[in-house]
Amino acid sequence: MIGPFTTPSFGVDGSEFDHYGDTEAFGVFPDWQRQLSKFASVQDRLREWNPNVGAKIQHFACLVISMLDIDALRVDKATQVTTDYLAEWGQSVHECATRYGKNNFYITGEVTGGDTFGAIYLGRGRQPNHRPPDLSTALTLSNTSSEKFFLRGAQKVAIDGVAFHYSMYRALTRFLWMDGNLEVAYDTPVDFVDMWNTMAITNDFVNSQTNKVDPRHLYGTTNQDNFRWPAIIHGTRKQNLAAFACALIMPGIHAVSVHLVQTRVDGGR
Q: Which helix (H) or strand (E) holds 72?
């Protein structure tokens, strides 16, 4: 159990929120700047590196799991959290969920930056020097594989998958001739096949709970507030085509839904 919390002091220095400036929602900024600053003028970061603040966040997450009987958590702006702390928090959440009989609890997080930066947060984390040499190696890894493929130790999982995959979103805007100024550095290719082949190597897809390769990105065309495509000309058709691309081309958490649909089509077998 987490011990008693200390009484916080007042003022900027003693605040549980950071005060490291502001960054607009969309624009060309390095990932480290977005990580440190307030996002879009409205979303403060907690000073989770303060042990007292970090302990509260872990405690509150476990309370939510125990009292609301949830099976997953979504971390908004996950890459604004210090990477090492989010891994500590992720391990704490998985351990708490296990105590309540949830042996495959899912933590998803929003990653607005490029794939190389986001890969640091996914699973046990992977920097460019941790990447497997080929697809065959990448798709046969497990929790006991060589540590050279991971940034952190076993169970130090920050997020299990990306909530709304901005790399996919940016690719869709190009594919559907809706391209805006959304390109970021060190991202995946925009071709869907090349994108998946890249992710399979750059991302740690090993499920820490089941010890199997288990891609669980939520690519999304309807799970984010910036999808208002039906309001534009041919927007409904564009959104439907994008949904097909996410659900039928890219491996991910949606495979569960596809399986359920197929079961129903086959008469419940």
A: strand 72-75
Runs of H (alpha helix) within 122-250: 135-138, 166-175, 192-202, 235-244
Q: Of the candidates 42, 101, 40, 45, which has an alpha carbon nearest to the alpha carbon of residue 78? A: 45
| Contact between residue 107 and residue 141 where contact means Cβ atoms under 8 Å apart | no
The answer to whether 60 touches 30, Cβ cutoff 8 Å, is: no
Pull the structure tokens for residue 251.
Answer: 């491996």
Tell me, rounded to whole angstroms, the distance of Cα 135 from its chain centroid: 21
Alpha carbons 201 and 217: distance in angstroms, whole number: 14
Residues 6+ positions from 232 with CB-CB distance below 8 Å:
238
Phi, psi of 177 (to 5 degrees): 60, 40
pLDDT, mean of residues 62-74:
95
Neighbours of 190 (CB within 10 A): 17
* pTM (2 d.p.): 0.83
82-103 per-position pLDDT tens digit? 899 999 999 999 999 999 999 9
What are the residues facing 111 on neighbouring strands? Answer: 165
Residue with tokens 């949904």: 243
For residue 171, what are its two tokens? 């690719």
pLDDT in tens, 203-262: 999 999 999 999 999 888 877 766 788 888 888 899 889 988 888 888 887 654 444 444
